[in-house]
Amino acid sequence: MLTLSNNARQILNERYLLKDNKGHIIETPQQLFKRVATFVAGCEKRQKDLFEIQFYKMLSGLYFLPNSPTLMNAGCKKGQLSACFVLPVEDSLKGIFNTLKYAALIHQSGGGTGFNFSKLRPKDEIVSSASGSSSGPVAFIKVYDAATEYVKQGGKRRGANMGILNIDHPDIEAFITSKSSRDAIENFNISVGISDDFMRAVVQDLNWNLINPRTKKITKVLKAKDLWHLIVHEAWRTGDPGLIFIDTINTQNPTPKIGRIDCTNPCGEVPLLNYESCNLGSINLAKMIVEKDEKILIDWKKLTKTIHLGIRFLDNIITLNHYLLPQIKRITTANRKIGLGVMGWAELLILLEVPYASDEAVALAEQVMQFIKKESFTASEKLANERGVFPNWNDSIYSPKYKLRNATCNSIAPTGTISVIANTSYSIEPLFALAYNRVGILGNETQTEINTLFIEKIKQLNLWTPQVENTVLRTGSIENIKIIPDHIKHLFKTSLDISWQYHLLHQRAFQKYTDNAVSKTINLSEEKTAEDVSKIFMTAWNYKLKGITIYRYGSKTNQVLQKCSLN
Ligand code: GDP
Ligand code: 5AD
Fold first, then answer.
1. pTM summary value
2. Ligand 1 centre and the CA of 67: distance in Å?
3. 20 to 30 A Cα–Cα from 328, which one of 111, 143, 287, 526?
4. Residue 566 has what pLDDT?
5. To test the ligand 2 pocket, which listed residue (427, 533, 549) has its Cβ within 8 A of the most ligand atoms?
6. 8 Å CB contact between 555 and 532
7. Is 265 a catalytic residue?
8. Domains in the chain, start-ordered, CATH in brackets?
9. 188-219 per-position pLDDT tens digit
10. Whether the predicted interface score ipTM is above 0.90
11. Strand runs (DSSP E) across 21-95, as ranges?
């Protein structure tokens, strides 16, 4: 039996269920899951029917969901199923506009693209063929941004991009402030590519050179600390830029002989080589439970089964996918990268009655993710025995001892839409609010709703009264409600009340056992200072995180990938 929330139904109706050419919906949610399961079991050589049934159960039970393009396009003609791509940006007009064309095709299919613009010569440098001067990376980002705006992806999904510029590029200062100007970039998340050398220069208060990528000449020398403060201040003011720790990423590159990694997908959870793509899927942790003696426990057996089936599902997609370009097909099928992650972490913690802002929760995060990593790798190893290792395996860090089917296995994605479909909390994020204004998907109605998880728990405790309901609707808080015991208040602490230290500890716990990366937003209350942001960024580097993004309540930018306002 498939039970979907109203929000899930609404999103599925709007964007996921197939429609005929008049725009009429022609499948039910059950049929959607059946379509996906049948297609993904299609490459099974033995027991195809059995896998189809198992995939269907896993999807319709909302135990695991793949990234949106798979739900939207599996089984359709030329169905492009991946969410994450990285494309190269070469220092030539032809290169820049070829890549823009490729990005448009990817956006049209529902995928997101990441670009590192650091190879582009700086603004105002002479361009010999044009007897003029170069526009520089920021201008070309604006061109990409405008193009993205006009490709609306058949009404399903707008384009989403990651733009990176390395910290030693001559145009880095203009890049850092590029999202705060009036003609701001709307369809990009931007991140500064930070090296360990730069971080050490900040710590030791040294000078920092900006270098022309084409001529290799130093164009400017400035204090590392001044550049750091510019980044920190902009991030504090607007939420952008984020940081990508490019050296940390490369120390864990599974195929260094194939190439260095310069870039990630739009939300940062997948570092990729040029033209590489990746498929994501997330396990709904809130469903991985069992009740014993009236206590809720993690169901490790069910989790194991879901991990093994999830890895197989994602590996099948690489075989069955429609690739938009031969370059994408080549590198993607040579590395076979997949990213199995989680959603519903905050919901699981609430079910287990462990507050997010506690050391117990952080320890449990490590235990859960370590388990997921171990079982994911076991599953990929089994697939290697059954189907062969990934073609670049000989050139990977796993050769010659550790046979694997996939160069990477795990990513923690934001699950912006699939967690709404699964009716659970986003990714590894804490609850954002107890009450929120829901803007209808068509943008024409707003109503205040109370988080259903909270209602259920309070009802269970016999504490649900009209007064509680009124107070939560009015204030969004339970702090001043006397009948609610302190431990329940602690359990329902929301994102802005949780210290940045605990946000980061959760990110670190999951990153420790994730071979790709973790997408997380460190939400801060409005009164947090630039000094706090500086400490957060520095701690993130010391924790060996691969990237970091903060968002201070009330800061001004339009984030590309807004948290879906339905949940
Ligand atoms: P979900 O599967 O739709 O829930 O997607 P996530 O929020 O988990 O995001 C995973 C990845 O999908 C992101 O890092 C992007 O690469 C891509 N993505 C997410 N949202 C969008 C979108 O609105 N448009 C496009 N083009 N790509 C997106
Ligand atoms: N780098 C990486 N991820 C980012 N996000 C937003 N901006 C950036 C950035 N510059 C991610 C958030 C969240 C999702 C909605 O987008 O961290 O997971």
1. 0.96
2. 7
3. 143
4. 40
5. 549
6. no
7. yes
8. 68-430+500-567 (3.20.70.20), 433-493 (no CATH)
9. 999 999 999 999 999 999 999 999 999 999 99
10. yes
11. 64-66, 84-87
